[in-house]
Amino acid sequence: MSLVLGIESSCDETAVALVDTGRVIRAERIASQIEEHAPYGGVVPEIAARAHAERIAPMLADVMNDAGASLADCDAIAATAGPGLIGGVMVGLVSAKALAMASDTPLLAINHLEGHALSPRLADPTLEFPYMLLLVSGGHCQILLVEGVGQYKRLATTIDDALGEAFDKSAKIMGLGYPGGPAVEKLALQGDPQVVPLPRPLKGSKEPHFSFAGLKSAVSRVHQSGDHSNADLAASFQQAAIDCLLDRLRKALSHHSAPALVVAGGVAANQAIRGALEALATQHNMRFCAPPLALCTDNAAMIAWAGCERLALGQFDALDFAARPRWPLDPQAQAARGAGVKA
Ligand SMILES: Nc1ncnc2c1ncn2[C@@H]1O[C@H](COP(=O)(O)OP(=O)(O)OP(=O)(O)O)[C@@H](O)[C@H]1O
Ligand SMILES: [Mg+2]
After folding, report:
1. 149 and 217 part of one domain
2. In the beta sheet, which residues pair with residue 153?
3. Ligand 2: distance of its center to the CA of 12 in Å?
4. Nearest CA residue ID for atom 31, ligand 1
5. Is the residue at 21 inside a domain?
6. Is 123 within the bounds of a domain?
7. pLDDT by residue (tens digit) across 217-267?
8. Could you tell me the residue range of the domain that residue 219 belongs to?
9. Ligand 1: centre distance to CA 151 (Å)
10. Core-most of 35, 58, 245, 292, by most CB within 10 Å?
11. Which residue has the CA at smallest separation from atom 25 of ligand 1?
């Protein structure tokens, strides 16, 4: 049994976790920066980096104390090395390098998206490769065929906004505050998902990709018109997003197959989306797998777990590994038509 220390600092959560290769989270701590960023309606990179720098050392000490472990017990130190807000990523990565040096332990520079992609395997030991993954988070919306550790075939991506971004921006338009995803989901429970006519961008398109910018703009127009309640607008927005996800997944499943459909990333915390995906999986005779809510949004257990998977394969990184603001999971994937710089 090996023990991996994981550090996550790519966005607005400072997180540290100690996970073993037997899938036990020995200890973990997460410090959210929601209060610091709330006045700005979104994450401010400079504030995020400073907050990570203040918190990370005491949190590392707390996790070690909670687990009753010491650095000498760790078999590797894993940290998110990208993609993300570069100031924050550097705080976590440099901390991990210092710990790796001090303890003469290997460094594992983890792709944050790989953390999300493998997180379902931390929660479920029976989930084997390959699986079809819907990765839906604040910065990404992708369909991936996960064939093994480090083997990701990107089948679709967004040509504009990520779905979490669309949730957050729609919440901001409706004055629901930040972070928007959970607020939209809660309000949607009181609304009618059929009553507000909203577009389903790229639905039925020959291209495999997603688009959510037009949906967000439509939410803005409807809100300005004052014709509908926020509850109906939230419910209709969420339903439009679900229809887009199902349409694009059906398209992917018409070309590729896998025994399991898996969802990961912050938006995977949404119960309505989970329910719709589970029904889709049943229709396609696939197993459905979604990690527990705490493993969906950013956390360090998923980074430590990705470290465990890489440790088992002996895939270590050098101490001069550079932090990467952008780091596609599938470097071979062609840029999507209309895409800006999103991988
Ligand atoms: N219940 C929910 N319904 C919809 N969206 C949600 C829910 N809970 C969280 N989200 C969304 O998930 C996103 C945060 O997820 P996550 O922490 O994985 O993203 P990120 O780390 O910022 O982006 P990335 O992983 O792409 O770098 C936010 O956009 C948030 O609004
Ligand atoms: Mg994330």
Report:
1. yes
2. 145
3. 9
4. 181
5. yes
6. no
7. 999 999 999 999 999 999 999 999 999 999 999 999 999 999 999 999 999
8. 129-290
9. 24
10. 245
11. 137
